[in-house]
Amino acid sequence: MKKAVCFAVLALAARFLAAAPAGNEFSRAIAYYLIGDVDLAQKHMDEHFARRRQPTVRLAFILLLKDDKWEATKKFADYLESDRRNLEALTGISLANADVGNSLAIDNLNKVLRLDPGYAPAYLCLGHEYARRGDFPAAEEYYTRSLKYAAVPEFKVLLADLYLRAGEAQKALDLIRPEADAAPGNYFFALTAARACLKLEGCAPAAYIEQALRARPGSREAQLLKGQQLLRAGELRPAKALLAKLKFSAYNPEYSLTFAEVLLGLKDRDAERYLYEVFAQDPWNAAANKLLGLLHLRRKDASVQNWIRRALLAGMPAAELRAAFPGSAPVAPPSAPAFAIKKLQWLGSRRLLAAGALRSGEKERLLVLDADTLRTIRSFEYEGAIQAFYPSPRLDKVVLATSAVENEKVYLYTLNAERDAYRLSPVVGYALDMASVLVGFNGSGTTAYVTDGSLPELAFTAPFSLPGAYGRRKPIYPDYPFPVYAYSYADGRWTQLRTRSALDAVPIPAVRRYRTVAEASRRHAEMAKLLERGSGLDVTSSVEMSIQFSAAGDAFLLVLSDLKNAFQAWAYDGRRDLLTRFDESMFLGDKYYAPLDLIAFHPERDEILVVTRDKLRNLFQFNYRSLLYKKIASSALAALPAPDGKTLYLLNERDRSLYFSEASLERVILSPFSRRRFDSRRDLAAIVDASDPAAVYVATFNGELLKLDEEGNFSGRQVALAGALHQVAPDRRRAAAFINGRLYVLDWQE
Fold first, then answer.
1. Cβ distance 198 to 207 under 8 Å?
2. What 3-state class would DSSP assign to 35?
3. Which of 30, 62, 222, 640 is the most buried (most CB within 10 A)?
């Protein structure tokens, strides 16, 4: 009897230990994993599992620390099948799923807290997950709670880093300084204290930097901080000597900017290389734009004002710019703060629609804004996260598609505008079983049509098929595979279209293009065989097949690429019901193998414009009926046809540097053939708008928007908005842009 009681007590004790809260070693291991130090995470994880033997869970964490998240997830999941209440395994599987982009990580961590409301590692991981998603208030709350339930000072490193990201250096220093003073041998305490100190006036970071270097003499991060300290002290030559020896395994913008500023102060020509390296990666880095402005000021370049404007829009204070550029008077245009703007849409020229969050941690909202003042006129809530806007032709209605991450379905709303009255309502009262949608309106805007958004990817790029049962694939042609719905604004009816005549009238461009291809397959056996062949291809095939359309969508090129020919094409003209086959050897020759990019397709003239996708970048005009061709240009960086179909604007590369190419603009009239080159600017990088022959707009590699007038003269118009979420107004006079936490409405074209 005594023996049985003894075994029962031991069994209960073992069960209690299996569900016991994590000790400080496990908490430290999780903290160091989130900080990014795998070695320290492994050390503390080993100490934890030496006391709490769980071989499967330990193996799963070993895989996680090796960044094998797929295998780690499988191990954690297998273990949780037998022990669904294991807190370490639930924490581990949440970390393995953190980068998936869904809510699994948060769901698993909340499950941990339901099992044990005082489990500190779960609070820490939730804080890190919310910080990764940009929800700073929620991240701060969970980090703070983790410190309430565990006396683990390493947790403070993550909270201090959050404060630094939020621009609250003093809070970061106040939090981490006591730990750095109490534990001078801890590298991360010293490094974080030094980072915070460097951002504060009157704070001396030298002691903490030396402390970090004593803990880890080879630390590149600590040496970079020392270089920044020397720069701040004006000791440029020692800073250059130190920074020149540093080598990071990956691009480090902080290093590039620091070294560039040191070199600029020493009038070293290498500053340009580091500055353009940062600018190429992040064109709205405020410090990079300011330093590039100083570089061009020294060269007495006319682009200085452009750099000042860019730095101002990127968030650099006007006072700081006035001090750096004496005589300048930068004035920021009207703007409104916003934490995250995900989509923009103009409602005419006076109103602007924006979807996003005004403050960190807030739920997404739909905002109707006055375009002159950026004052919020109306604000609406919606389910899910914004996916896309679909405006009606008159811009008085907009269909919104939002997605719910947890079930990968789409919610549809419609915004109706009547003068200054706005109303948001669901299109249909349930989520559509689609990952995305396509929406089109009839000409009067009284009916909206909806279909599956995966249509272009599945129908216009091989394999032309849908996944079916038992791993089989179902051809996507010739019968339209997705439901199509119509929503009537007159009576609010939502109906599914089923007849072929109804589908033929659907105004969604992708649906009309699909119908063109399907009709060609019915009329031409050769096209049907090609589509059948395409439906059997897979990702391992050496054959690629795609369909590209004319501007009107009633003609297309089916392009096949294999090891023999890079461009075999079948041109179908739906208006004439003509199918013509050709390949690149007809204008490149038999010995020239190069993939081609289609620039323009004019079925009415039986003509294509293509550029070779190789180092030569040769541009050809080819008539596949007469077989006549002309080589128009080489070294073509960009080409944009004008709406008239006869004019082509080209950027031709003249010289190449590490991060940009010098290019000049050329206008080519295809019929009758003529050309004119505009050589006064050679810093061009993109053709922005060629819709008006009297005013062509181009962007420079310095981020400036230029206007080319009828006389062939360039003039600065505005900053170029590449790299920023933006939308141009219907009249093209203004553009809305979201840049580094602020929403602007800028003058655009004249």
1. no
2. helix
3. 30
